[in-house]
Amino acid sequence: MLRQFTISLAILLGSLTLTASAQQYYPTLQVDSNDVAQKLRALRFEEAQTQIKREINQEKRKRHSTTQLERQQREAATGLQMLKGTAQLLVIDSVVIQKSQLLSAYHFSPEVGKIWLENSSLGKQSLAVYETERGNRQYRATVSDDSLQNIQLVSVDKEGNQLGKPQPLNGLGIDSDTNYPFMMSDGMTFYFAAKTNDGLGNYDLYVTRYDSDNNRFYKAENLGFPYNSYANDYLLVIDEVNNIGWFASDRYQPADKVCVYTFIPATSRHTIDYEHTDAALMRQQASLRPLNATWTEENKPQRDEATRRLSKLMNTAKQQKQNDFEFVLNDQHTYTSLNDFKKTRARQLCQEWLQKQKNLRTLEGQLETLRDEYAKANRTRQRALTQQILDLEHRVEELTNEVYATAKAIRQAEQ
């Protein structure tokens, strides 16, 4: 059972009133310089509400327009609702890099699939493509001819090197800019980024699920704080085998930089207790500033273990850039490519060995997830998990022996 990062679709978000200039095709939040606006950007929504109410009364007595204050009032109400729904998110690391080098900060395993960015006719705007591990389907952002939409997400089935006809993703409930798709291995949980009127003005992260019975997606939901901010937040990716996730944000960054946050995915969404959490700490955790606002002594072992997994992933990725793989044939020779093999049978066995190793990593990841769940579960749940863990341990042992036997067969065939 792979650990799935599922998000409760119960965040109720109000609608932010947005403004757009003639030069901006998509709406962005009006950036005010007044004191109320500064409180909103600092997530001091209750303070903003008090001040707005006072200023509205003052302006009404003077018979002045209150349009801008009413807009800010709605924004404060929505922001407060989002703040109260802030998810518990355990971030273990972050790195600031050039936007042009975005993908270099994502060190996921091959089981996740492939992601790349393509140029578009929209200048600096990149179009993201996600391809499943099997390589049989792509989810990609494309430039639309629809006058109401510049970028839209589509799915494309793939057979060999042939791409089928792009199909729109029905049911998302978003009629504006959508980009940066990622589908979980369950083939149902789908993440993407969008600019919408119920978001925070720039790219926000959204989640939905695929309804296979009706061949459409459920209406997408905004992930809220701390995944999203008043800046651009996008490209959420989860490696289920290693239980590590990433997302990008240009919050607090100059125009040419982006910060990629690395976090530990949760099995379900848990919100921070707004009523019993210090207000300053609440804002820190909602904005991920400082990063260690999510750290406690209790979650230190979890963070340390995740850091080790991340380090292993990064080392593996670095090694893979240099070699396809490493197979120790004997004391004198280590093969790093299928082309190194002289015997056809040995080359075929090596392909089997590589696939078995891949399957073994997947099973080991599943086993680790179940063991973690067992340690935190009540006795009823532990009894239900016991047989699953025993079965998986048996399969891991079997596959480990198969990997060893195949390696031995390779050496014999290459002699």
Protein architecture, described:
This protein has helices spanning 35-41, 45-61, 67-84, 279-287, 300-322, 344-376, 379-414, and strands at 90-98, 114-118, 127-131, 137-143, 151-159, 162-163, 167-168, 178-183, 189-194, 204-211, 216-217, 221-222, 233-239, 244-249, 257-264, 327-328, 334-335. By secondary structure, it is α+β, with helices and mostly antiparallel strands. Strands 2, 3, 4, 5, 6 and 7 form a 6-stranded antiparallel sheet that branches. Strands 8, 9, 10, 11 and 12 form a 5-stranded antiparallel sheet that branches. The protein has a 4-stranded antiparallel sheet with strand order 1-15-14-13, with helices on one face. Strand 14 (244-249) and strand 15 form a beta hairpin. Helix 2 packs antiparallel against helix 3. The longest helix has 36 residues, at 379-414. The protein is globular, with a radius of gyration of 25 Å.
Low-confidence stretches: 1-31
The fraction of residues assigned to DSSP E strands is: 15-25%
Classify the secondary structure makeup into a structural class: alpha+beta
The SSE order reads: HHHEEEEEEEEEEEEEEEHHEEHH
Specify the helix fraction band.
Answer: 25-40%
The span between the termini is 40 Å
Structural Rg:
25 Å
| Biggest sheet statistics | 6 strands, antiparallel
Mean pLDDT: 85
Number of strands: 17
Based on Cα principal axes, name the global outline: globular
Q: Treating each run of at least 4 consecutive H or I residues as one helix, how many helices?
A: 7
Topology:
Blueprint: H1 35-41, H2 45-61, H3 67-84, E1 90-98, E2 114-118, E3 127-131, E4 137-143, E5 151-159, E6 162-163, E7 167-168, E8 178-183, E9 189-194, E10 204-211, E11 216-217, E12 221-222, E13 233-239, E14 244-249, E15 257-264, H4 279-287, H5 300-322, E16 327-328, E17 334-335, H6 344-376, H7 379-414
Antiparallel strand pairs: 1-15, 2-3, 3-4, 4-5, 5-6, 5-7, 8-9, 9-10, 10-11, 10-12, 13-14, 14-15, 16-17
